[in-house]
Amino acid sequence: MVARKRVKYSVVDAFADSAFKGNPAAVCFLDDDDQRDDAWLQSLAAEFNLSETCFLTPITVSDDQVLPRFSLRWFTPVAEVDLCGHATLASAHVIFSNSLVDSEVVEFATRSGILTAKRVPLTEEESTFLIELDFPVVPTCEVNSTTDLSVFSNAVNGATIVDIKATEKDVLVVLSSWESVTELQPRIDEISKCPCEGLMVSAAASAGSQYDFCSRYFAPNFGINEDPVTGSAHCALAHYWSSKMNKCDFLAYQASRRGGTLNVHLDKEKQRVLLRGKAITVMEGCVLV
Known about the structure:
The chain is of the alpha+beta class. The protein folds into two domains: 7-136 and 276-287, Diaminopimelate Epimerase, Chain A, domain 1, CATH 3.10.310.10; 150-270, Roll (Diaminopimelate Epimerase, Chain A, domain 1). It is 18% helix and 39% strand. It has helices at 38-48, 85-97, 150-155, 178-182, 188-191, 233-245; strands at residues 7-14, 23-29, 52-59, 69-75, 80-81, 105-110, 113-121, 129-136, 161-166, 170-175, 198-204, 213-219, 224-227, 249-254, 260-267, 272-277, 279-287. It has a 17-stranded mixed β-sheet that branches. The model has no long low-confidence stretch (mean pLDDT 94).
């Protein structure tokens, strides 16, 4: 049996400014000559058993390429996904905090096209920084008229629903109050029956709150009963709440047990969403097989 290269990894808590908060992601580095098949990638994601394990591979810079670029793939414990915000932020954090590139911006080639992450210093010493992700808007629209809406009422355990919208893959259920979201006792078995990949639950913040809205995200069919902080969901939440609040800048809170804060900007002209957050590395190691 030929020995394989060790795969270095970091576990990073994204959308958090202290350890054991926000959303953890495993960031694994593959050399461009270390080709692992999809079954191996999925098996490692199952081994980590985090909401996302992602794989970074450097891409050789071409003559017309200005910014450093990496291939980036995201896996839940059971499937590869098209877009993941917190694992992208975690990847950028590892790259910037270890000075792996001589640039304030890095590009990722992904299933969702070329995504960028920007290092935004918070102090003159530049030892602490935010990361700004540039993602596509995910429009929200009316739910298919043939959909049985009672399944969503069952999923949110009878909580009062004030609006339901759909994206291409997820469904957004808007509840009557912040407390309705934070105190929700979801029925995971019923969520798994909903005609969507993930269920977003959201509500506007109370008057006087520093936040604009809160949310939670559930995807049991992808091995994630509740995702701690879901960057990609805010590409849809920004679209929805912009139309309701007539604004484009938001401070959002994801009300999972771990919790997480996101600065969100909707660029209507370019149809992009800018997500800003902090991250912290909590583990480093090597995969030996």
